[in-house]
TrEMBL record, chain A:
Domain SUF system FeS cluster assembly SufBD core: 174-397
Name used for this protein in its record: FeS cluster assembly protein SufD
GO biological process, one term: iron-sulfur cluster assembly
SUPFAM superfamilies assigned: Stabilizer of iron transporter SufD (SSF101960)
Domain of life, source organism: Bacteria
Automatic annotation (TrEMBL), chain B:
SMART domains: AAA
Protein name: Putative ATP-dependent transporter SufC
NCBIfam families named in the record: sufC (TIGR01978)
Any one Pfam family match given in the protein's UniProt record, by short name: ABC_tran
GO terms of molecular function: ATP binding; ATP hydrolysis activity
Alphabetized InterPro entries for the sequence: AAA+_ATPase (IPR003593), ABC_transporter-like_ATP-bd (IPR003439), ABC_transporter-like_CS (IPR017871), FeS-cluster_ATPase_SufC (IPR010230), P-loop_NTPase (IPR027417)
Keyword annotations from UniProtKB, A to Z: ATP-binding, Nucleotide-binding
Stated family: Belongs to the ABC transporter superfamily. Ycf16 family.
Span of domain ABC transporter: 2-248
Keyword set includes Signal: no
Length: 426, 251
């Protein structure tokens, strides 16, 4: 079917100045992805999946300008022992990065893989993204698969002694960055992946994660700093039997952020938790779009998303649990809540369940509310200033999401960031 | 210490006068009890003194050591020395009891220009005080009042009072929902805080609490006013004959 003319024009305009990297073993996947983009067209305001978030600035030919954030706040995770992989405006930076050597894991740059004819990553590059295009189209992810020139392929075969830390620095006020990472966690292997930094003026990032039977992946991400930045991110995760995926995202500021998580539980007894906490002020727009598919027996999934919004900020949650036929004993849970600190802010939520098995437990809930006045008075009556009492209650509201992080030190680092934001904005 | 003169209060949302000229003076070192039938305005008095929203003072004054309470925010009143033990302590999920109390103690110290309490000193003090109220370490770690039994909540109020060391303690029906043993424990906690520099206003329906916290003065409140004031024997009179005799007498 032909695309609507407006969409066709917008897609062609975006593709006009894009150059596919010299692709080696990823060439076929990239060409397939480009064909998907041409077929689907890039998102427009009329698309149902983009009803609450305007994609215009994410698909425009040029990235909108985004000022750099100059503050003396130290970078997150500085105090953690980790293997640092640094990208500056979407380009790998060897001088900022550690040597990509760590026991239990092998790490290659996508650029290097492209020079090879045979590499394990070839079996994965674009595969989960392509699979994740049904039943809902995600054209920005296909665009990424086709054109992302950089990123890393992480192959986890053991239990590395420290987290792998992907750091995204933003140096140019007009940078338009695309990164594509792929991660394969082998059977019985376990890894923690950290991500932080504003990345670029506009950032399109895709991660494909394949967790084999009994593999474990912890993911903790922080999106913060440069407020004018825009980002569309996708994480496609496939879980094997008895495997575990736990992902947490903290978002602080940002005029436009769309984070999509596409999770498929394909092996029995797998566990997937995706959580997010975000705080936004003023012209802040944050969209969590999650699609969890249960396609095996006795799997557990949790979605926990909390948003604190003020001064006209907007939060969006589109979350779905799809339980396929035969996925018995599924335990699916989804909660999305917003704390609206004034009447100008808004939260738009679209929770969905679609269930084709009869022996499952699935629940979902979504709420919007203001600060509890009774609790606020109780705290003030003990001498706590209104501002501090409000901050305490705000952190308490976010706690359920932050508690999804298993590592206590990482959770504390997230709370410290939130406290910093609250102290600057109240 | 606490001086209330001709206090008139109405509900902000409806034109209904609740307090109709309350006069009350609580001296340092004394325990005053207020008794009275339901709807007489006892709890309203406690809320107005602690600064809760929803009430409008139309006349009169309330001062703590010559400072105008009614002009202050709730947190300023707390720093000045007012403490209200709530009839229904509020549950606050996500805020640890210990964090809450330490924030409160240091906020008050800061407001008074005093040095903040170190984490070590705070821990030492709270452990000792919690122990005497039979509050275990787990209750200190848990979120404020979440999952606490009725008795635990009231003991937690007294623990807060002990840590904050207020000048003027107002207890709003602290005995409600308590069994005899829990009431004794709470009363012991209150009695331990009695000293020459501190005043108490104990609001209760029943004389039984006053068996454990011996009042110096007993007031009877009815229809928004204090209608009778006497010694501890007044509480016994209420216990034996109910409020009707007293109310008939003053009318």
């Amino acid at each position: 079917m032909a695309l609507p003319e407006v969409k066709q024009t917008a897609t062609e305009a975006r593709l006009a100045n894009m150059v596919m990297p010299d692709a080696g073993c990823t060439r076929a996947a990239r060409e397939d992805a480009l064909a998907r983009v041409l077929e689907m067209g890039l998102p427009s305001r009329r698309d149902e999946y983009w009803k609450y978030t305007r994609p215009d600035t994410l698909v425009s030919p040029e990235a909108p300008h985004a000022a750099l954030f100059n503050a003396d706040e130290p970078m997150l995770f500085d105090e953690f022992d980790r293997l640092k992989i640094v990208f500056v405006d979407g380009v790998f930076s060897p001088e900022h990065s550690d040597d990509l050597v760590l026991e239990g894991v092998s790490i290659d740059r996508i650029e290097d893989i492209c020079c090879k004819d045979i590499h394990w990553a070839k079996e994965l590059y674009g595969v989960l993204e392509s699979h994740g295009q049904t039943p809902v189209q995600r054209p920005l992810a296909a665009l990424n698969t086709a054109f992302a020139a950089d990123g890393v392929a992480i192959h986890v075969t053991g239990k590395p002694s420290k987290p792998i830390s992907l750091i995204y620095k933003h140096r140019s006020e007009s940078s338009d960055a695309m990164l594509h990472h792929i991660v394969r966690v082998e059977s019985g292997a376990e890894v923690t992946i950290l991500e932080n930094g504003p990345a670029a003026s506009r950032f399109n990032k895709c991660i494909e994660i394949d967790i084999a039977d009994g593999g474990v992946l912890h993911h903790v991400r922080a999106q913060g700093r440069d407020h004018e930045r825009r980002a569309a991110t996708h994480m496609f995760t496939r879980l094997g039997q008895d495997s575990v995926y736990k992902s947490f995202t903290l978002t602080v500021n940002g005029v436009l952020t769309r984070n999509e998580q596409v999770v498929e539980l394909t092996g029995d007894d797998a566990v997937a938790h995706v959580a997010g906490a975000c705080v936004g002020d003023g012209d802040f727009h944050h969209d969590d779009t999650v699609f969890v598919t249960h396609d095996a027996v006795n799997c557990e999934s949790r979605q926990v998303f909390k948003k604190v919004l003020r001064n006209g900020a907007t939060g969006v949650f589109q979350g779905k649990i799809l339980v396929k036929e035969g996925a018995q004993k599924t335990d699916g849970y989804q909660i999305s809540q917003s704390l609206l600190l004034d009447e100008d802010s808004q939260f738009l939520a679209k929770p969905e369940l679609e269930i084709y098995a009869d022996d499952v437990i699935c629940s979902h809930g979504s709420t919007s509310g203001a600060i509890d006045e009774t609790a606020l008075f109780y705290l003030r009556s003990r001498g706590i200033l209104t501002k501090d009492a409000t901050n305490l209650l705000t952190l308490a509201f976010l706690a359920e999401a932050v508690d999804e992080i298993e590592d206590a030190a990482l959770a504390e680092a997230m709370v410290a960031r939130l406290e910093g934001w609250l102290s600057r904005h109240s | 210490m606490l001086e209330i003169k001709n206090l008139h209060v109405k509900l902000e949302e409806e034109d209904k006068e609740i307090l109709k000229g309350v006069n009350l003076t609580v001296e340092a070192g004394k325990v005053h009890a207020i008794m009275g039938p339901n709807g007489s305005g006892k709890s309203t008095l406690s809320y107005v003194l602690s600064g809760r929203d929803g009430y409008e003072v139309t006349d009169g004054s309330a001062e703590l050591n010559d400072k105008d309470l009614l002009e202050m925010e709730p947190e300023e009143r707390a720093a000045a020395g007012i403490f209200l033990a709530f009839q229904y302590p509020v549950e606050i999920p996500g805020v640890g009891n210990m964090t809450f109390l330490r924030t409160a103690v240091n906020a008050q110290r800061k407001a008074r220009g005093e040095e903040e309490m170190s984490a070590a000193d705070f821990l030492k003090e709270i452990r000792a005080k919690a122990k005497s109220l039979k509050i275990d370490a787990d209750m200190l770690k848990r979120p404020v009042n979440v999952g606490f039994s009725g008795g635990e909540k009231k003991r937690n109020e007294i623990l807060q009072m002990a840590m904050l060391e207020p000048k003027m303690c107002i207890l709003d029906e602290t005995d409600s929902g308590l069994d005899v043993d829990a009431m004794k424990l709470v009363a012991e906690g209150v009695n331990a805080l009695r000293d020459a520099g501190r005043g108490f206003l104990v609001i209760t329906h029943y004389q039984r609490l006053l068996d454990h916290i011996k009042p110096d003065v007993v007031h009877i409140m009815a229809d928004g006013k204090i209608v009778k004031t006497g010694g501890p024997e007044l509480a016994l009179e209420v216990e034996n004959n109910g409020y009707s005799d007293i109310l008939a007498e003053v009318n």
